[in-house]
Amino acid sequence: MTDHSPAPAPAAAATLAARLDRLPWSRTHTAILLALGAGWLFDSLEVSLFGSAVGPLGSHFHATVFEQDAILAVWLGGILIGALAGGHLADRYGRRRLFVLTLLWYAAFTVLTGASWALGVVYVLRFLAALGVGAEYAIINAAVAELMPARIRGRAGAVVMNFWPAGGVLAGLLAYLLLNTLALSDAVSWRCLFIGGGLLAPVVLWFRRHVPESPRWLAARGRRAEAEAIVAGLERACGLPPLEAAAGGRGAYGQGTDGRGDDGPELRPGGLAALGELVRHHPGRLALGAVLDLAEAFGYYGIFALLSVVVLPKVHIADAQVPFFYILGNLGALIGGLVMALFLDRLGRHRTVAVSYLLAAAGVGLLAWATASGSGTWVTLAFMAASGFATAAWTSAYPTFTELFPTHLRAAGVGTSVAVGRIGAIVGTLSLPSLATHLGATASYLLVVAFWLVGAAAVAVFHRRGGIEAAGRPLETLTRPAHLPARA
């Protein structure tokens, strides 16, 4: 990722946070971006492989349609709980430590899923693996926001999110290799998909060794010497002379000797205390994150459920062509997400997110028209467009609400938003195919459109009520505790 914008003048860098934001783009930033993106790619690979494996798995265990749908519901429930727990753990124990733990956790249970001897065991192992994936949502987004310079923070976050459709493309190719080229039996193919996906985790772990702990999180925990050492190392890696922290015993965020900072009056909440602080002091920001995630999760997962159960059988796309269908859809998603990333810092968060959600609603309308035409070609093209708009929407939403939470609550805020969103995913996945069966696909599509429009409305309301536009602004200027005076 290339950044041609000039870094702020060194004279302005008086705190650790400002020194992070003044850094020009370097190989270290690229390594961090790739490491975080590689984890997201592996998450997507793991999730997408399930879509290819559920058919052979169901045939092997003679599972009913409901029993197969229940596997996805259990998976989404695990992500919900994992996002809540992972967010609180990352705020308490740090981003870097959780990077390794969550990766090893869900990789291990993914491999074990491939060795399942009964459908009930599959349920248990998918739930356990999903706990790790859910935690990744909070950890990765918090780390990107806290490590990237403010002037390109949104673009960097969006690029990391777009490793998700890249993982979907890779999963489609792997599924085609195992299910079509090698023509493995149902009893073997689904096991190979899970085991093969899980064994790729060490590659991601190799990348993640480059990711330092967040200096902002360290400073918020009172560990300013460690934060100083990391920032100085990043400055040297960028070819800049390390600057000293501000005088008067004040380090990152202008913290004083009492260990408190501009980030919040209490820097060590956890569990229900963190949720309580979010609700009391940041209700609008938490509501924005929850609504944006609820809308995109309902739309994104619901569309995929509709495609597999209703649309593809109707337009007569053969099973052998389904992997290519999803590969093309993920290519469209990747294009849409990367194009959006070019505008997130330039046009601002509110405008980019609102437009992306409106386009996502339009994309669903296009897919509804293509489905009614009965043409597999039109459905494929419409799916590419709808995936591109939907990915632009959710990959712009995550950086937007992540940066609004204070550092000591950031991962918990993201985790709570994701947990609410998974409720939408569960409801959409289970209800939309049934609704389409009884009332027709158009009714289901209209409901998805409504959810995307709710997301766009949430951004508009947040903006009209004076919600902060964070593009290009240092994280430390976005929140302040009540006991400190307002900043300019």
TrEMBL record:
Domain Major facilitator superfamily (MFS) profile: from-to ranges: 32-467
Protein name: MFS transporter
InterPro entries listed in its UniProt record: MFS_dom, MFS_sugar_transport-like, MFS_trans_sf
Species classification: Bacteria, Bacillati, Actinomycetota, Actinomycetes, Kitasatosporales
PANTHER family: CARBOXYLIC ACID TRANSPORTER PROTEIN HOMOLOG
Record keyword Transmembrane present: yes
Segments traversing the membrane: 70-91, 98-117, 123-144, 156-176, 188-207, 286-312, 324-344, 353-372, 378-397, 409-431, 443-463
Localization: Cell membrane
